[in-house]
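Something for you to look into today, if you have time. I want to see for myself how the chain folds. Leave the record below and I will have a look.
***
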Amino acid sequence: MESTPQATQREITLESLAIVRARRADFQVFNELLVQYPMPRRKRPGQVVPDNMVVIHPEPIDAVGSFDVPLQPVGPFWVLEYVSKSNRRKDYADNMRKYEHELKVGYYLLFAPDKQEVTLYRHMGERYVSVPPNAEGRCAVEELEIEVALLNGWVRFWHRGELLPLPADLLRDLEATQRALSEMTRRAEEAERKLAEFQARGKNGKN
């Protein structure tokens, strides 16, 4: 069963990266999708289920039940795992081995909510190397113009230097804008009313 922190982080990731998806058509995000790939000298394929996965391809990826690497035009570009307290070995050892040596995924993000630790790895051809934070304290996936860092206890995402908002943030901004517009409308109507009264008094004075 999935823990609440894992579910929360997956929701944040999907909501944030949906904005990147809207900005570039080749950016595709998958949620808990089985990835299958051939293993040398083994009849059964290798399997792994990332919490989230990013694939870069200009055409839609047909992966309804599983992402079968030999049948796809490209492999996973970035995988994201949110570590469960009860199953650390899966993400830190087993899955990391699969992403690093078997699938050779370009980027791997590991987030342990209970320890408030986030690490972004970049594949350098033979192995993963952790990506150091930049001057803003964020780790960059340079090819995607995306940065990641902890903010208020969760992994948040920046695109082209802009923090990607969550729906609650957007709703608050929308409501604030609506209130400001309502106030502007009220003031404009009040100004029109006073102008009409002033003009009426002027006409009465001439008469």
In short: The mean pLDDT is 88.
